[in-house]
Design goal:
The N and C termini lie far apart (46 Å). Helix 8 packs across helix 9. This protein folds into 2 domains: 183 residues, L-asparaginase, N-terminal domain (Rossmann fold), CATH 3.40.50.1170; 119 residues, 3-Layer(aba) Sandwich (Rossmann fold). It has 343 residues and is an alpha/beta fold. It is globular. A hairpin with a 4-residue loop joins strand 2 and strand 3. Helices cover 30% and strands 22% of the residues. The structure holds asparagine (ASN).
Length: 343
């Protein structure tokens, strides 16, 4: 018998109609009752919190990280499933992944249709997640959704309501779940985990500011004024802004603020190609380029670096290490596998 612990946190997988909209309300045991448990798997449920995931805070994510740590202290546990709202699922999954030091997996899943929907996706996703948690090893935190297993890193919610909600625009899934078994693709090396932050660690403020035509430094400066210790600038294209924003980034970095550059484009890596306030100048100003991490996960990388660094002075180096393990754009041969282009 394999032992899996399900940590329930809310989301649509735990949601019911409230008369004017959906909200998370069901406990983990009710979520579990929505579907079948794979044969040979025994499940224990931990009810951690019950929220729509757009309401999450770093405080929730630290509680989840410590709950996982405590559950894995029991050597008889084979793996963990976290049921979670899909809106910020990729953020919590990367957060857990960056601190994960155990061979046993943390498998995130959820649903796009509410718990009581007749054609719901909760049961299938949960079944696949339980199978993956019971059998996967050395995969860190992963996302299981609509029959696919994705590494937490680089995966995003790609559709607001479709049941195929997740994907990695720059990579392939790690595996698939079909006919009651998990088939694994290529193995990805795991990065060195960050040290576990205290459960009651004070969450540093990390803001996200998007660039656009007419963009200026006002919102970036407002973030600093609000006490941000980290800011993710979501550039246009390959990670570009303008000279005014680049100058503000330089001043912030000199003042000890961790600045990272992501892009508002859906796929491809941030790449230093352009001056005039582009990624070339932003990198020269001391900002770190986040490769293929989309903005929500780039923010988590900065947050985790601030929480996991031995001291504030070492946070830039910690972020460099976190980003060194970030997947880069697909190679030509991988593109062939995704798009079936070529011969
Ligand atoms: N499908 C979902 O789970 C969306 C929901 N609003 C949530 O993230 O909690």
């Amino acid at each position: 018998m394999r032992h899996v612990v399900v940590i329930s946190t809310g989301g649509t997988i735990a949601s019911r109609w409230q008369g004017d909209g959906y909200a998370a309300e069901a406990a983990g045991q009710e979520v579990l009752a929505a579907g079948a448990v794979p044969e040979g798997v025994d499940v224990r449920v931990v009810d951690l919190f019950t929220v729509n995931s757009s309401q999450l805070t770093t405080g929730h994510q630290l509680r989840l990280l410590h709950a996982v740590h405590e559950v894995l202290a029991d050597p008889s546990v084979d793996g963990i499933v976290v049921t979670h709202g899909t809106d910020t699922l990729e953020e919590s999954a990367l957060f857990l992944d960056l601190f994960h030091s155990d061979r046993r997996p943390v498998v995130f899943t959820g649903a796009q249709k509410p718990l009581d929907a007749e054609d719901g996706d909760a049961a299938g996703n949960l079944y696949d997640a339980l199978l993956t948690a019971a059998t996967g090893r050395d995969i860190g935190a992963v996302i299981v959704f609509a029959g696919q297993v994705f590494a937490a890193r680089g995966t995003v919610k790609k559709h607001t309501v479709d049941v195929r909600a997740f994907g990695d625009p720059d990579g392939l899934p790690l595996g698939r779940v079909e006919f009651g078994r998990v088939t694994w693709g290529r193995h990805r090396a795991r990065p060195v985990p960050l040290p576990l932050p205290a459960r009651d660690a004070v969450a540093p403020r990390v803001d996200v500011v998007m660039h656009h035509s007419d963009g200026d430094a006002v919102l970036f400066e407002a973030a600093l004024g609000a006490g941000a210790r980290g800011v993710v600038v979501v550039g246009t294209g390959a990670g570009n802004t303008n000279p005014e924003v680049a100058a503000a980034v330089g001043r912030a970095v000199r003042d000890g603020v961790l600045v990272a550059i992501s892009t508002r484009v859906a796929a491809g890596a941030v790449t230093p190609l352009y001056t005039g306030g582009g990624a070339v100048d932003l990198a020269a100003a001391g900002a770190q380029l986040t490769g293929t991490l989309r903005p929500g996960q780039a923010r988590i990388a900065v947050l985790a670096a601030l929480l996991g660094a031995p001291s504030a002075e070492e946070a830039p180096e910690t972020l460099r290490q976190v980003l060194a393990a970030t997947p880069q754009a697909l190679t030509r041969s991988d593109l062939y596998l995704v798009d079936r282009v070529g011969k």
